[in-house]
Every structure is written in structure tokens, then in C-alpha cells.
Amino acid sequence: MKKIGIVYGGKSAEHEVSLMTAKAVISALDFSTYLVTPIYITLEGEWICGDALQQPVEDAESLRFTGSEQPNSIAQFVQLASHQDTRFDIVFPVLHGPNGEDGTIQGLFEMMNLPYVGNGVLASSAGMDKVVMKQLFHQAGLNQVPYLHCLHSQYEENQTEFLNACEAQLAYPLFVKPANLGSSVGISKAKSREELQQAIQFAFEYDRKIVVEQGIVAREIELSVLGNDTPTVSLAGEVLPTKDFYDYSAKYVDGTTNYAIPAEITEQELHDLQQAAITAFKILDGSGLARADFFLTTNGEVLINEVNTLPGFTPISMYPKLWIASGKTYAELVEELIQLGLERFEEKQHRAYTRDEDGSQ
Description:
Largest sheet: 5 strands, antiparallel
Number of helices: 12
Shape: globular
CATH superfamily of the largest domain: ATP-grasp fold, B domain
Distance between the termini: 36 Å
Number of domains: 3
Radius of gyration: 21 Å
CATH class of the largest domain: Alpha Beta
């Protein structure tokens, strides 16, 4: 049997989402093929490794360990995962947000030479930072909505200047977002200067850097990307929020958002969206999975919003829903992601790391 560690929780505002994702992934695994070990990171950053599971868990809350399990530190996890007898064949991180989706834990796995599912350090860190991501999209020639960004220190130094710039270069309504957070946490819509100030202060509660984007009248279209160097793209789905915008509660709590899967778009629009999704995935040097989010205007113009390198993976999340509509079951999707992680790890093992004295490899 292959040993697989499911790493979840984390010191992040998206901790609860991670628990739901972990439950879903564990439930999809074949327990006759994998020895499944849950590895919980608490909100305080404590690492807790549970006993190997004998069957899927009944609810996400049961994955919230009390602290009696071992190991209870990252150093002990490294020791466990590095030992020949207890080493994992692969780890499946389902940590959303900072300290899990931003390349930090991927860097740990790389240093341990441990196979893992999903994007590497570069794609994770660039995809997590909305400013860096937008700059890369611009380099790739992808169309985007107008935006400005600001550090907290800059804003505190001269709030009026940034507010004036927002109103001079952008048009209301504006969306204010923390630069390094997902799942619509910390996002607000502003229709006036007063609301803009409040939205900025709220976003700064979650990050030192924020993005202010111009609102646009357009449809919200999402596509799922799967693969390594030669990725494939799912059918398109449309987000149909019943609220003012697609916020955290609409995504994960109250179920007020509707979806059209597949989206009612033309073949040309689907082609343009899929090609843009592949371009975005490749400019980030993506691997494994990503969800690409777009705006589609009434005249068929495609504007990329963002790419999520560890998208929601719960049963109600768009990423798996789009692949299910495209012909893959949830269990098949999980297995393919594991194989993609192993494939990338195997490719890495064939790289040269030494040089002969004459300078040749």
C-alpha cells in the first residue's frame, strides 16, 4: 500500500474550508490502495499527526484534533516523514490561503525531497499574490480589469493620495481585496469614497497589501485546469450569485450561489476562455491543478480575474463540479492529481545536481 499524508487546517482565515476539503479528499481515496494519515495544523500553527485511518471520516469536525496525537511540532513531522519506515509516498496538501497555498509548505516538501500534490513553490507563491499574478498576466498578454494596489505602510503615510488615485484612475463600483488571500475572504464592494475607505481598512485586517479593482458588467466564468506541462481544461461554468457579489458565505456557508454548468456560451467564447486558462496556467508554471476565473463581457471579450492554485475542493466547489461535468468522477480526479504529483517528482529525480571537474555534467 502507498502511504499518503493529508495535510490540512493551517494558520489561515480559510482553516474551516480546509477541513471540509480534507474530508472530501479522504472520502474519495481507495483505502485498499492507500494508507491514509491525517496531518492537522491547528490555528496556532501546531502540527498534529493522527493515526492512520481505517475508513473515511464522518464529518469535517472530527478532523480537528485535540493535541493528544503525535507529532506535535513541525520538527517531529519532518522526522516522521523522512524516516525510511514511516516516509510518505506522497503528501496531499489541502491548505487554503497563507502558509499553505503560497509556496511556503511546498518549499518544505521540496527541501525534504517529498512528493506532493499540486503546484510547486513558484506557481503557488505567484498565484497567491494577486499583484504579482496580475503583473505576470500582463506579461502574457492577457486582458484584465483596471486595478491599483497599495501596501499598508504606504496607505498609512498618505491615505488621501491613494483614495484620489483610485477615484481618478478607476470608476465605481470598486472591489477591494487582500492581495494574499482566497475564498473571497476580506473582499468588499465600494460604491462611494466612504465605503472605499471602510473596504480598504477591512482588507488590511487580512494582509499588508491590497488590490482595488474596477467593477465591470460581465458574466463570471470559471474553468478548471488539470495537468503538468501539457494541461487540459474543463468545460466552462458560470457563477450566478444571488447576493451583490460572490463572497465567502455564498461560497461555503449559506449556499445562496447558483451555477450554470456548462455555461451558455458560444464555441468561440469557450475556445478563447480555454486558451486563456492554459496561458495563465503556464505563465505561472503551474502543475497539478488550478481554477481560472474570468469575466466575459456582452461583446465576447475575455478578461482574466485570477487563477487559484489550490481551489476549493469541497463537494459544492466549482473545481470538481466542472470536471464532473466534463466526465471525471471526484475519485478519478483525486487519483489523477496524485499521479501528476508523482510524475512531477519522478521527473525531478532525473535532473543533474553535480558537475565533473572538467565542467561537464
